Amino acid sequence: MSTTVFAAQSSNAPTASRTASNRLGDGAELLGRIMLAALFALSGLGKISAYAATAGYMAAAGLPGALLPLAIIAEIGGGLALILGWKTRAVAVLLAGFTLLTGLLFHANLGDQMQMIMFMKNLAIAGAFLILAARGAGSYSLDARAAR
């Protein structure tokens, strides 16, 4: 019964406050996408500017440097797609997998406190991507525009 009362009260809420709340949520979703995207886009650009060093770091972890262009494309392309809100759900799932994989490959020494923290950050970022995959990009996105 209390659920019905709450639902009735919610439906009587002023339209202006619901609109302001929607704008706040839409803005938060956009800002969140930009913040996640910045991490990846800037990391991809950094890999380009320090290509040889990054390839060496990958080789030290046992990965072929031939994978570096794919990582750069994933980071820059994925970052730009998130900012624009284009194919957000699919991009978020792919970046969640990428983030988990890089955490396992580069931060798996959980006996080292710094590596454990870096691994946990990767888990948190992957979690944010999964929330984004579940919810979608929000109103301020190419995905929303295409749905109209």
Q: Between the first and last Cα atoms, what is the distance in angstroms?
A: 36 Å
Helix content: over 70%
Q: Strand portion, in percent?
A: under 5%
Largest sheet: none
The succession of helices and strands, N to C, reads HHHHHHH
Number of helices: 7
Based on Cα principal axes, name the global outline.
globular
Q: Kindly provide the radius of gyration, computed on alpha-carbon positions and rounded to a whole number of angstroms.
A: 20 Å
- Chain-averaged pLDDT: 90
Per DSSP E runs of 2 or more residues, the count of β-strands stands at 0
Q: What structural class is derived from the secondary structure elements?
A: mainly alpha
Uncertain runs: 1-14
Short description:
By secondary structure, this protein is an all-alpha fold. The protein has seven helices and no strands. 81% of the residues lie in helices and 0% in strands.
Report on this structure:
The chain is mainly α and 148 residues long. The protein has helices at residues 2-11, 15-49, 51-60, 68-84, 88-106, 113-135, 142-147. Helix 4 runs antiparallel to helix 5. The longest helix has 35 residues, at 15-49. The model is unreliable at 1-14 (pLDDT under 50).
Question: What features would you highlight for this structure?
Answer:
disordered N terminus; 7 helices; globular; mainly alpha
